[in-house]
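Format notes (please read before filing issues)

Several people have asked whether sequences and structure tokens are stored in separate files. They are not. Every record keeps both together, in the order shown below: the sequence lines, then the token lines. Line labels are part of the format and must not be stripped during preprocessing.
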Amino acid sequence: MPIRPIVITGNPVLHINALEVTEFNQELRDLVQDMFETMDEAPGVGLAAPQVGVSLRVFVYDWDAEEGSAQRGVVINPTIELSDTPVGEPDWDSESEGCLSVPGERFPLKRAEQATIKGFDLDGTQVRIDAEGWFARIFQHEFDHLNGTLYVDRLAEPHKSDCAEIIAERGWGKPNLSWLPGQDKLEG
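Then the structure lines:
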């Protein structure tokens, strides 16, 4: 399966609500396999279908919190339940996120500490995953992608302005920009 280009902020597919998956078929299986390979090559811990230019409610994830506790999978047509988001300033060291659609950049963002994601696997079987800490952060980040929101859209000042300046300096924020993991060298 091929590694797919990852679209960069400004591409319209990243800024709209993705469509529900209605057919659990070979085309969906191929998309998910491509997404895993693309995520691994990037490398990343999550990748949503809109990030590879496909407006469907699908994301893959790969999180290894500690030796022997790896979690890898796909969630289709997810819903999410969150604990309250803590108040206060986000910590640079423990709460900074990155995004493959804003490549090479990281900014701090407050997120809920707990998340329950419900959806379907590739066979159309219901799944439910309870997550805490960074695993919960991954689910929130990828779920946001399916709703047309990038983590940088949620940043507080001064990080929001700093990020906007970087996006402008790099010439991002417009349609038809992408990068190909394993081939393109990125700034940052």
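For reference, the curators noted about this record: Residues 6-175 form a domain with the Peptide Deformylase fold (CATH 3.90.45.10). The chain has four helices and nine strands.
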